[in-house]
Amino acid sequence: MKYPARILLLFVLCCRLSAYGQSPWPAAKAAAWYQQQGWLLGANFIPSTAVNQLEMWQAATFDTAAIDRELGYAAATGFNIMRVYLHHVAWQQDREGFKQRVGQYLGIASRHHIRTMFVFFDDCWRDSYQPGPQPAPVPGVHNSGWLKDPGGLIDRDTTLMDTLRVYVQDIIRTFKQDQRVAIWDLYNEPGHFKHGAKSWPLLKNVVAWTRAEAPEQPVTIGIWNKEFTDFNQYQLEQSDIITFHNYRDSASMQEAIDTLRRYNRPVICTEYMKRPNNSTFTTHLPMMKKAGVGAINWGLVAGKTQTNYPQGNKGGEPEPAIWYHDIFRADGTPFDATETAFIREIAAQ
Q1: Backbone angles phi, psi at 187, to 5 degrees
Q2: Which residue positions does the secretion signal occupy (predicted)?
């Protein structure tokens, strides 16, 4: 049977468009997905034995015992999701080994009934990095070893963008049907640490690369600075579900919730809880649960990242009386037993 030329042209165009992958989910699909999740409650996770993402994921320092032990603390507290950062250098060193370790991590988390939100890129903290042994933490300094990915290297290495494309698509292709992965968070705080507009090419590319793979899980890029209006508009338009960061008091949190719920999509706060700012579990979890907003605080176990110390400190100070972030010591002792009891209670409601 012969078809008119315009019908054939339309068919070819449709095939070409489909090759670019999926569009952002319709709001109804996002709502249906969210309804099946229950209330998502958890923390940003890196084991206490790792100073940064490379130390977490490299073969020589991939600490399954610490991961298992510390996710056990999380499960006993009522947490059901962890937000976990990847790093392209760990993949670049050993692609198959890296994916195997990601699978091992997911297996451990799943045994604790915890699902995972993976983060690909990050504009925050140290700009230089290299594979191999990682530097020891600077005593008492908040996040002294945390790494950007890819940071300023992308401005100097003209081949890196293509490497990052292969990396993102390899990881998503491997895990895009894995139900242990709850969400893909494509880029943490784009434009931060004075990257500004230089973050646009990678941000737009990671969205395109991810959509081309059509993962079964939702995709998000979290809002973190309400003054970044152009970034925010793009991130909201390209996200299946809305995520955001807020480390301020309860009035600020409520304002953020009210603003973002107007988009009629599921909303999850993927960074909060800074005790000196009156951003605490007791002040914030009740309002988030009432609003049906997922809650993922910064920090689970105080360790080599030292995020229990205040941001911007010079180091050498004693451990603060009021922890900045984090919930447990490495041995499982909570910073504040009444706090963890409160989390368990609200998780069970």
Answers
A1: -160, 115
A2: 1-21
Question: pLDDT tens per residue, the chain (349 residues)?
Answer: 343 444 333 333 333 333 356 899 999 999 999 999 999 999 999 999 999 999 999 999 999 999 999 999 999 999 999 999 999 999 999 999 999 999 999 999 999 999 999 999 999 999 999 999 999 999 999 999 999 999 999 999 999 999 999 999 999 999 999 999 999 999 999 999 999 999 999 999 999 999 999 999 999 999 999 999 999 999 999 999 999 999 999 999 999 999 999 999 999 999 999 999 999 999 999 999 999 999 999 999 999 999 999 999 989 899 999 999 999 999 999 999 999 999 999 999 9
CA-wise closest residue to 195 among 136, 92, 125: 125
Q: Domain for residue 105, yes or no?
A: yes
Residue 308 inside a domain? The answer is yes
Contacts 24+ apart (CB under 8 A), 175-178: 175/102, 175/106, 175/118, 176/213, 176/214, 176/215, 176/216, 176/217, 177/215, 177/216, 178/106
The residue with tokens 């449709």 is: 14
Give the DSSP per-residue string, 69-91. HHHHHHHHHT--EEEEE--HHHH
Domain at 263, CATH number: 3.20.20.80
Domain count, the chain: 1
Whether the full predicted model's pTM is greater than 0.85, yes or no, is yes
d(CA 96, CA 324): 37
